[in-house]
Amino acid sequence: MVDDNQDSAESLAMLLRLLGHEVSTAHDGPSALSSANRHRPEIVLMDIGSPGMNGYDVAREIRASPDLNAMRLIAITGYGQDGDRRRALDAGFDDHVVKPVQLDTLTELMA
Known about the structure:
The chain has one domain (6-110): 3-Layer(aba) Sandwich (Rossmann fold).
């Protein structure tokens, strides 16, 4: 779970843990890449507007890495225009969800 809003990241991480998922959090782009390399998650939930390196750039880095590119990337963002969705998919995200995310939508995308 990557979000610069620590409360938001920790709240969603807590919900996912209650559903039985193992979750780690990061709060900026560089930390997200470091965590992805260290933990090798199956799924990355990522806010687009992260400081230091935005979610688009992180997604591109993950997709360019042979060790990481199989991860499922889900953008969870306040950017909800059609162009924002296209930009996320072009950067390598598999899905684009607008905040506030519904838990049932998220669990469906993670299935």
